[in-house]
Structure formats: structure tokens, C-alpha cells
Amino acid sequence: MASVSQSPVNFSGSLSSATSASDLLRSSINGVNGVPLQTLGKGHVGPRRKGLNIVAKVRKVKKHEYPWPQDPDPNVKGGVLSHLSPFKPLKEKPKPVTLEFEKPLMDLQKKIIDVQKMANETGLDFSDQIISLENKYQQALKDLYTHLTPIQRVNIARHPNRPTFLDHVFNITDKFVELHGDRAGYDDPAVVTGIGTIDGRRFMFMGHQKGRNTKENIQRNFGMPTPHGYRKALRMMYYADHHGFPIVTFIDTPGAFADLKSEELGQGEAIAHNLRTMFGLKVPIVSIVMGEGGSGGALAIGCANKLLMLENAVFYVASPEACAAILWKTAKASPKAAEKLKITANELCKLQIADGIIPEPLGGAHADPHWTSEQIKKAILESMDELQTMGTEELLRHRMLKFRKIGGFQEGLPVEPEKKVNMKRKEEPRPGLISDKVLQGEVNKLKEQIMKAKESSSIDMDQNGLIEKLQREINYEFSEAAKALGIEEKLSQMREEFAKVENGQLTSGQIENLERLKNEFNEKLETAPNYGRLKYKLSLLKEITEAKVFAENYKKTLPLKAKVNEKFKEVLEKSTLKQKIENLKAEVEKSDVSSIEEFDQDLKEKVLEVREEVESEFINALESSGVHVTSKIGQSSMSLVKAKVDELNAEINQIIQDVIESTPDLKSKIEMLKLEVVKDKNTPSKESKEKIEALQQQIKEGVADVMSSAAIKEKYEQLQAELAELSGGSDGSLIKEPINKTRRGCTEFWNVD
After folding, report:
1. Residue 380: what pLDDT?
2. Which residue stretches, if any, does this entry annotate as coiled coil (predicted)?
3. Is residue 120 part of a domain?
């Protein structure tokens, strides 16, 4: 095989400029020195190539000072090993950045500077003014930073001058050695790891590293790690677990880098691997959110035993801007999204996601980075002291339970009052949307429950809910009828007029207008399109109200009924009566008759005699137990008395109605009473109650003369005498209840509640 001679050949032009040093170096592998591989592929071997000479220039680069420089400064904090990190303090102080909500503070600061400048130029003493302005500035700063909104805390967490992970690490550690690489060919600058000591105690540190200026941010990829960064952190976790170093992680990232290359390299798998591994590490882990913690990119190094947050840090699954764009289709709704997401340190501590808050100075961590770092140092040591007292199994269980309890709930437990405040109340169906069939079904169901309860002699029903629902439906139907009849506007105007009335005194003209409008509405009501539904719902309300009255009355009689039954059994168990009843049964059986009408006269008399004796003993037993028994009245006689009582009631009501119609002052008071009761029906005030009581007393006095008229007195006395005769010469006490009902009937025209 032909060989190429090593005689010098000079290349010029584009070919020589395109030749790289790596090509020259790789060509030596084939036994050819100084010949580019590209040239070997293109050149021809022959006699005419003998005079060629290949020359390559290797570009000079700055020698990298690694692992440390040849002449290290021994006075550097942390010793020679600190040179392993390329992170150095900035030569220039970062430019101050004013957030939007801080501009009022800057105005005060500008005034202070102007006054100081004036004092320097004129030589005058403005110390009092300067002190006053400085006090105002400090007070305004305190007020602002103690009442920050969630979106303002997000802006502080993203502040360009906020201290980074390495800023805090170099402030809190005695020594720190940065460790590089994921052992798979890459070293992600967005994730920094290393070993450091705090007060002589070794820790493994790892965290997201943002840049302090534009150049560093580009180099650090704005703190957004690639899969290589998470694999580097994973390697250091295994390293710390093997050597028993507690792990401290610092979280400050908007999220994992979401480009095509990262997805191809397994971004999701890298995060998932970290999550799984962190739950099995046998060393204590403390995570500190020092800026913003975004989604899985933050959680990949955040599965710790304790999660601490700086006061103005945020921790979220989606940024407020992204959430607003998804829910409200605009990023301008980010303040609302930040509030709803509950991403601040205070909110996350309430939800038991974060375990503690590290304070920041007024103005944020960037206002005093060293003080903030000291607070972080104290928090780390306190947390580690607590965690290092746990055994391995207890530590793993502690970490597992911390995440298992997040978002957990148990049904049936009472809700805490502070949580119940923010819960959405159950909304009642809007009136008019409930069908008549549903309402009828509920009424029938309630009736069945009442009947079943009656059979079991135990009624404990609540009809108020259904009555309120029906009343809402009826009010809605009345409103719809008023709209359809064109009366709604007149009602609104009248309400406005009544609201302007002083002392609640209506004029005669206003009362006439009210009566006229009421009569007009009643006359036209049957022509309303929803009159059928209104009438049907009114009938349902009447049914359920009657059922309620029955249930209440029956419930009141249950104790008395039980007592009466008990006494009756005691009477029947008496030996004398029991013997007489047994003898009477034997005689009836011997007579061989089936009905009492077929008894002979002697047997009938014996039955009546035993019956009267049982009744007498029964009444005596009831009287002795405190139950007053008046007398027994036949059913037909009682019906007659009831009819007469109803007739007397109707007559009294008619007389009262005539008196009211003929007395404008009394009628005006009744209308005022109705309005007052309706106005404050739900929560009447003390003043309203007093006014209602005064009006009721005035109306009672107005109708008192009606009750004292001679005609009514005569009928009342006559009815009482008839009842006394029926009751066997007693004082007619059984009529007290009907007569009281008659008296109460007098108030039906004014008692509107």
C-alpha cells in the first residue's frame, strides 16, 4: 500500500481555514502526522503530492484554573477548597430594581435625598425634617410589607436582586466544596451541589441556581434544570445517603426546562426517579423554598422531612399567569389566580404543606441578604436537631406521612369553623323552577310520615322547611302575577313613598292608594297567566299548615294520653272491679245473646251499674294524679254547642269588621301594623318591636268596646247557661275554651304576624 511522505505542504484559502486541531490530532491515529482526515478523504496519493507540507495552528485558550489556582489566596473564606466553585462575588453592585407597588416608597426616599442634598448645599440644619421623613418611610415600608397581596409576594420572590442559592451557602457555611457532573457526560449549571459544614457539622447542599445578571441567567438557564441537573442531584443524594450526610435542598425555579431536547433526554423520568429515591433516603432532608418553587421542577428536590419557606417565597403547581391564561383566557387575571391558588407561605402552612416560615427583613431578602442567611442557618440547625433524634424507620415514616396527609379528608367529621367560612353554601333552587309534581310529592311524603308517626305514638316532624319553600314559591308567583298585570311598577313607587314616611305615620291619601292598589290586584288576579299555579300552591300550603297544626296538637296530647291509659289500666286491675267485670262477662256468656239491645232489663242495669262504677273510679284516679275532669257531654250536644260558638264568633268578627271600616283611625293603625310587621319580619329591631306592641295595644283598646256590648254579653251568657245544663249542672267550664277562641277571634283583623 502506498504511503504519504512527511514533506511539508502549505495549505491556504478556505481549506486551511476549515481544518481544525481535532482533525489534525485524529489523523495521527492512522499513522499520518499533521494530515487532516478531511484531506485524507479528498487527496490523491501519487508522485505529484510528494512536495506537500501540512501545517496546523492550534488556537490558544485561557488555561482553566482547576481544581484551584496555582497561587490561591489563603485568606479566602472557606479556605483553598472554595476555589472549586467558579461562583465569585460580583465586581459591581447590582442596580436597584423598584417593583410597581414600591413606587410610593421611592417617592418618600427621593424626598429624603432632596432634603439631605439641600442641607449639604446650604449648610442649614434639616435634621428634624429628615428624621420625620425617615420615620414616615419606615412606617410606610412596614405597612406595605405586612399587608402584601399574593401577587406582590410572587413579584418579590422573582426579584432580580434576590439572593441566590450560592449566596446563602457561602454565607452560612464554614467550608463549601462544589461537586460537579452527573457522571453521564454533562454538568448542568442550573443545579449546584456540594458538601459544606455549618458549625463543624457536615451537610450535603443542593439547589437551583439563578443568575445575578443577564449574562449569568443565560449561563444558568434562568434556574430551569435539564434532566442532567436532576441526575446530578440524584448522584449526590446517593453519595450523602452512603456517607450519612444530612441533605439540605434550596428551591428557586420557575420549573423544569421544557424544551424538546430535555423531553428527549427524559425530563419526566429524571424527576420521577428523584421523587422515588428521596422517599427511601435514610438521612434527614430539609428543603427551603427561597424564591419561587414551580411544579415538578421544584418537587424533584423537595420531598423532605421538613419544608420551610422564606416569608415572601411561593410554591405552586402552575404559575399565576399560566393559571389565569387557562381559566380566564388572559394573563391579566394573575392577581386573582395568585389569591385562589393559595401559594404563599402563610397559606401553605395552614394547609400543612409547608412546616415553617423563615422571616425576611422589611423590603425582602435582597434588602439584607446576610441577615436572611442567618435566619436560614438557624432554621436548618433547629430542624436537623429535631430530625436527627429519630431512628431510620421513624425518619422514613415521618417523611411518608408528611406527604400522605396532604389533601386528605375524612367524611363525617365536623368541619372546622375557620374552614367552613370559605366553603360554598348550598344554593336553594330558584323559585319558579320547582315543578308542581315535586311539591305535591313532598307534601304527600310529609303526610305519610305524620300518619306513620301517629301510629307509633311518636311525632317528631319538621314541616318548617317545606312551609318556607312553599312560601317562597307563592311569593314568586305573586311577583310574577304583579308583573303580568302591570302593577309591579306601582308597588315599587309605593314602597319608595312608604320608606320616606317619618315615624311610620301614613297619611289618609297613602292609605287610600294602598287600598285601591290592593283591590285592583285582587280583582285582576284571576286573569293572571299563573293564577292556576298560584292557587294550587296556596292549597298545598294550606294542607301542610293543617298537617303541622295537627302534628303539634297531637304531640301535645301524647303525654296526657299515655297518663290516661296508664291510670285506666290501674283502675281495671283493682280486685273489686276486676271481680265484678269477670262476673258480668260470665252472665253475658250464659245469656247467649250477641248485642246489648237483646239483653234483658236486669242485665242492662247491671252493665250500666258496672260502667258507672268504672267511670267513677277512673275519674277519681285522674283527679288524684292532677288531671282535671269536668264532665262528659254527648257528641250531638257538643256539636250543637260548637255550632253556636262558631255562630257567635262569626257575629263578633262581623261587628269588629264594621267598627274598623267605620273608624279611619283604627283602620290606619291596622295598615301601619301590617307594614311594620312585613318590613322587619326576619330580624325585627328593638325599636320595631316596641312600635308593633304599641300599635297592638292601641288596636285592642279600639275594639274593646265591641266586646262589652250588651248584645254579645247576652248571647255569651245564654251559651254558657246551655253548656252548664248539658254538663249536668256544673259551672259550664267547658265553654271557656270556645269563648276564649271567640275572644281571640277579635284579634284576627290586626294580628298579621
Report:
1. 96
2. 685-729
3. yes
Tens of pLDDT, residue by residue over 127-137, are 888 888 888 88
Burial class (CB within 10 angstroms; exposed 0-12, middle 13-18, buried 19+) of 684: middle
User: What are the phi and psi torsion angles at 186 (to 5°)?
Assistant: -150, 150
Asked if 379 and 290 sit in the same domain, the reply is yes
Place of cell 401559594: 343
C-alpha grid cell for residue 477? 308567583
Q: Are residues 190 and 246 in the same domain?
A: yes
pLDDT value of position 273: 95
* Kind and range of the H or E run holding 310: strand 306-310
Q: Looking at the domain assignment, is residue 117 inside a domain? A: yes
Q: Nearest 5 degrees, angle CA 600-CA 605-CA 608?
A: 125
Label residue 737 exposed, middle or buried (CB < 10 Å: 0-12, 13-18, 19+). exposed
pLDDT value of position 455:
57
Convert 134-189 into a string of H (helix), E (strand) and C (coil): HHHHHHHHHHHHCCCCHHHHHHHHCCCCCCCHHHHHHHHCCEEEEECCCCCCCCCC
Do 168 and 143 share a structural domain?
no
Q: Is the pTM of this model over 0.70?
A: no
Query: What contacts 49, CB < 8 A, 6 or more positions away?
Result: 4, 9, 43
Q: Kindly state whether residue 373 falls inside one of the protein's structural domains.
A: yes
Write the pLDDT tens digit of every residue in 611-670: 877 777 777 777 777 666 665 544 455 566 667 777 777 777 777 777 777 777 777 777
**For 436-454, what is the mean pLDDT?**
71
Render pLDDT for 559-604 as a digit per residue (tens, 0 to 9).
777 777 777 777 778 778 778 888 878 877 777 776 666 677 777 7
Residue 632 falls inside a structural domain: no
Q: Which positions ≥6 away from 745 have C-beta within 8 Å?
A: 649, 652, 653
Total number of domains constituting the chain? 4
Q: How do beta strands 191-198 and 175-179 pair? A: antiparallel
